[in-house]
Amino acid sequence: MERVLRNLLKDGAFHGVPRERSKTMSSIRGRGNRTTELRLRALLIQAGIRGWRIHPRGLVGSPDFMFDLHCVRLVVFTDGCFWHGCPRCAHPMATRGHFWRAKLARNRARDRRAARALRAAGYVVLRIWEHQLSERPMLVVERIRRVLKKLGNRRPSATT
Ligand SMILES: [Zn+2]
Q1: Residue 102: which region, alpha, beta or left (left: phi > 0; alpha: psi -120 to 50)?
Q2: Residues 33, 82: contact at Cβ < 8 Å?
Q3: According to the model, what pLDDT value does residue 93 have?
Q4: Measuring CA to CA, which residue among 92, 93, 57, 102 is closest to residue 75?
Q5: Rounded distance from Cα 126 to ligand 1 centre (Å)
Q6: Centre of ligand 1 from the C-alpha of residue 155, in Å
Q7: Distance from residue 81's CA to the centre of ligand 1 (Å)
Q8: From the CA of 150, how far away is ligand 1's center (Å)?
Q9: In terms of pLDDT, which residue wins out, 129 or 13?
Q10: Please, are residues 37 and 120 in contact by the beta-carbon 8 Å criterion?
């Protein structure tokens, strides 16, 4: 299982999937954050963190993950640095052209609105940047663990 996931994520590309599906996946990736999402999924599995669902339905902003254990209301977004306008990775294209600046500003505003609405509904919202997942994946895992623990969920730490 672990090996399958690792193969799947090697170089951020999709190895070992049928060509047709790989094509579809790349097109999704072009739109958003498929790679980051898969990376976090693999990390959660590796770390033995349970109780999450991917792409929960009916939530504003379409979070990528939701932890729905007893008394835990946590949603996690994994954001591609480019599309969501990561302040650290500011892509040259995003700071230069007016079109991109405007588009990314709209994306960021939408992200903020979604987070506000989710918080108002009682969720804790975690936003994880693509660069955090590729550079310091274990820090991301620790951050999620800490939040889950704080929210009163003992199961993740029990599995380590
Ligand atoms: Zn970034």
Answers
A1: alpha
A2: no
A3: 64
A4: 57
A5: 15
A6: 30
A7: 4
A8: 26
A9: 129
A10: no
Number of DSSP helices (H) and strands (E) in the chain, helices first: 8, 4
Distances (CA, A) of 39 to 13, 14, 82, 155, 159: 11, 11, 17, 22, 20
CA of 75 to the centre of ligand 1 (A): 20
Better-scored residue on pLDDT, 52 or 6: 52
User: How far does the centroid of ligand 1 lie from the alpha carbon of residue 107, in Å?
Assistant: 15
- Report the pLDDT value the prediction gives residue 19, as an integer from 0 to 100: 52
Higher pLDDT, 129 or 84: 129
Select the more confidently predicted residue: 62 or 28: 62
Q: CB count, 10 Å around CB of 70?
A: 9
Structure tokens at 24: 């579809």
Tell me how far the alpha carbon of residue 11 lies from the centroid of ligand 1, in angstroms: 17
Distance 71 CA to ligand 1 centre (A): 31
Residue 158: what pLDDT? 44
φ, ψ at 29 (rounded to 5°): -60, -35
